[in-house]
C-alpha cells in the first residue's frame, strides 16, 4: 500500500505534515485550531436546526400521549373516543347482521320488555314458528335503552346495541308515557334510525310487540322509499290520509330517506309536545317532504294487521301488532294467545299436507281479549318504557 499517497490525502485547510517538524507529542498549531473552528461554525447552524426539529417532534408526540386533566382536553378526547367507539360498534353490528343487500331488521327493548317470558321472548318465538321467518333472526339487531335489557339481550341474541350511552335520562330505567324521558327515548330512536340510513343500511323497523308469521318482503313495493304500517288502512297505499303506525316500517337507504329522517328528527323542536308517530302524521303533508318526491306507501292491514284492524286471512298475514292496547301485561297475555292461534293454523296445514286434502281453514284470531277496552281500564301508577303507548 502506498503510504505516501495516503499521507498526501490531507483534509482541506490542514497544513501538510511533511512541511512541519516531526513531533508526535507536539500540540496542533494555532493555524490548525482557527481553521478547524471555522469549519465547525459553518456546520453548527445545520446541526442545531436538525437537533431542534427532532426535539420538537418528540415533544409533540409526547404531549399528545399524556393526559391533561387541568385543561379539559382529556374529557373532550375521551368523549370523542367514546363517540367513535360507539359508531364503530354500530357499524360492526350492522355489518354482521346485514342481508346481502345491506338490509337489517331492527327492534328496540327496555328492561320490562326484555324480561323472561315477556315481549322479547314472544317476538323471538314468532320468528321461530313463522312460515320461513326463522332465517331472519340472524339479521335482527336489538337496540336496548337500558343496561338490564342490554344484559339480557347479550345472553340470548347475537346482535345487541346499547343505546343507553347516548341517552341522558332523569330516572334510572322508567319512562312513563309522554314524560320527558319517554320523549327522549322515542326521538332517540328516530335519530338512531337516521344514523343507520347514513351508514348505508336499509332497515325494517319492528316494535317488539309485533309478531312475525311470514316473509314481509314479498309484499313490499319495490319502487317505494318508505313503507309504513297503519292503525287504519283506507285501501289506497298512496293516500297520505291513512292513519300510520310507525311501529313497523321498511325504509331504503338513499338521499331522500336520509334527508327525511333528519327532517323528522328535527321536527321534535317544531312539535315539542308530540311523540314520533304524531309528528310523522303532521310532517307527511309538509312542503319539504313533498319537494323531496319521497315515495311513501301505506301497507295493507290484510298483510300487516293488528288489534286495531286485524288481518282476517291466515293464508296472507305477515305480521300482527298488539296496537290499540295499553299495558304490558295485557299485551303479553293477548300475544301469547295469538301465537297459540297461529300454531293451530300450522297444525291444520300440516294435517292437510299429510292427508293430501285442500280444505279451507275456518279458524280466526281469538284476540284481543285483555287488550279489548284496555284504554278504559285504570292504569297502574308505574309503567316501564312503552307501557301505555298506543303503538
UniProtKB/TrEMBL annotation:
Source organism superkingdom: Eukaryota
Designated name of the protein: Nucleotide-diphospho-sugar transferase domain-containing protein
Chain positions covered by the region annotation Disordered: 1-33
Species name: Mikania micrantha (bitter vine)
Keywords (A to Z) from UniProt: Membrane, Transmembrane, Transmembrane helix
Keyword Repeat: no
Domain (Nucleotide-diphospho-sugar transferase) ranges: 136-335
Keyword ATP-binding among UniProt keywords: no
Comp. bias (Low complexity): 21-30
Transmembrane portions of the chain: 48-70
